[in-house]
Design a protein that fits this description.
The complex is a heterodimer of chains A (287) and B (103). Chain A is an alpha/beta fold and 287 residues long. Chain A is 33% helix and 20% strand. In chain A, helix 1 (32-44) packs across helix 9 and helix 3 (108-120) runs parallel beside helix 4 (140-148). In chain B, strand 1 and strand 2 form a beta hairpin. Chain B has helices spanning 31-36, 90-95, and strands at 6-12, 16-21, 26-30, 64-70, 74-79, 87-89. Chain B is built from 2 helices and 6 strands. Classes of the chains: A alpha/beta (287), B mainly beta (103). Chains A and B meet through helix 4 and strand 10 of A and strand 1, strand 4 and strand 5 of B.
Chain lengths: 287, 103
């Protein structure tokens, strides 16, 4: 009989990641994943190492947007999944593991388990930034991520319609309650520039997000115009920042990335509560 | 952040948790009182707000097994009676500080 092996203490979660950022929205369909992918590429272009975690378990769209539908994922010796490297980004998504068109029909606890595995059992390694593309709303995924990960901050994406901005304010309240700083609002689909006459049209009314940012006293990080090319680029797996760096949309993504990095510099890394852990020493039995 | 957050957790004797806060304040908590204060859905009826069990059902010698941060806003405590579904938010924990200065 030997002595029990010493208990191996797991490394702190995402210990090698300097900044973990959540990309969030209240409403679905505001272009959050497109923004997350392009922001990740724009930040990567500054020379930083960047990871991208697709936390939209029910509707993972990152694989399509980066052009890696079912890559041959591999594991480390310690059975950690290695993120797929694409466009210089380290990416993980449930979509990598699904056969095409297979729906994910799961209840909340399963979503929690998968996200936990993506945080604990993926070899994220050393990264300057890990962007987490959240599903819309304020539900299971948001709770899991905010309870497990010391986030540096969140970016809330909206479109100019009042309904989108109104729901985004709920996200703002949620992040406030869990002490995650909201680094700013981004207005997607803010306007359309006619390729023929260059006239700008505010299809969904422009500027509402900027006004909301003022009301809620949240930084306004920028606006991204509607550009059919962004959709085409996303569909062929080549983010616009890389495919059409000269476009107005790519310029907007880069400007937002710069604003975001500046906002993080103004805050100390992991600005807030340190991850604490205390194992209680029980009283010795008296009889 | 509006609320101070814990920067250190310390066990004192068998039944007292010490919390050092980011603003320098120090609080001490009786752990059984913390267990009784749990307001998770398993402990408190969501509709009536009433506790689902009498105080007497919680052993006098109850103690945490482990205390860990939950994100940046709460502590998660695993208890010796098997309970582990509750979170204690930093703001409420601070509000429960019973030191002379706070109370």
């Amino acid at each position: 009989m030997g002595t029990a092996p010493p208990e191996k203490k797991p490394a702190p979660l995402l210990a090698g990641v300097t900044h973990v950022l959540a990309i969030a929205s209240g409403k679905g369909g505001v272009g959050k994943s497109t923004l997350a992918t392009n922001l990740a590429c724009a930040i990567r272009q500054t020379g930083a190492t960047v990871g991208l975690l697709d936390a939209d378990i029910y509707g993972p769209s990152i694989p399509k947007m980066i052009g890696a539908l079912q890559p041959p994922l591999q594991a480390t010796d310690t059975q950690q999944l290695i993120p797929w490297e694409r466009h210089g980004l380290h990416v993980m998504s449930l979509g990598f593991m699904l056969t095409q068109d297979a729906p994910v029909i799961w209840r909340g606890p399963m979503v929690h388990n998968v996200l936990r595995q993506f945080l604990q059992q993926v070899a994220w390694g050393t990264l300057d930034y890990l962007l987490i593309d959240l599903p819309p709303g304020t539900g299971d995924a948001q709770l899991t991520i905010t309870q497990m990960v010391p986030l540096s901050g969140a970016v809330i994406v909206t479109t100019p319609q009042e309904v989108s901005i109104h729901i985004a304010s709920r996200g703002l309240t949620m992040f406030g309650q869990v002490n995650v700083p909201v680094l700013g609002f981004v207005e997607n689909m803010s306007h359309f520039v006619c390729p023929h006459c260059q006239q700008e049209t505010a299809i969904f009314r422009r500027g509402g997000t900027r006004k909301a940012a003022e009301i809620y006293e949240v930084p306004f990080l920028g606006e991204v115009p509607i550009d059919p090319q962004v959709t085409l680029d996303g569909d062929r797996g080549m983010p616009t920042v890389l495919a059409h760096p000269e476009s107005a949309a790519a310029g907007a993504y880069r400007a937002i990335a710069d604003q975001l990095i500046a906002a993080l510099v103004r805050r100390a890394p992991r600005h807030a509560a340190p991850a604490l852990e205390l194992t209680w020493q029980p009283p010795t039995p008296s009889n | 952040m509006a609320t101070a957050h814990p920067i250190q957790l310390t066990q004192y004797a068998h039944a007292t948790l010490g919390v050092t806060w980011s603003d320098g304040h120090e609080s001490r908590y009786d752990v059984r009182t913390l267990r009784l204060a749990c307001h998770c859905a398993a402990c408190v009826d969501e509709m009536t707000g009433e506790r689902r069990f009498p105080d007497s059902s919680v052993p006098d010698n109850i103690h945490p097994l482990q205390i860990k941060s939950a994100g940046q806003y709460a502590l998660h405590i695993r208890w010796s009676d098997g309970h582990q579904s509750g979170l204690v938010r930093f703001d409420e924990l601070r509000a429960w500080c019973g030191c002379g200065g706070c109370s």
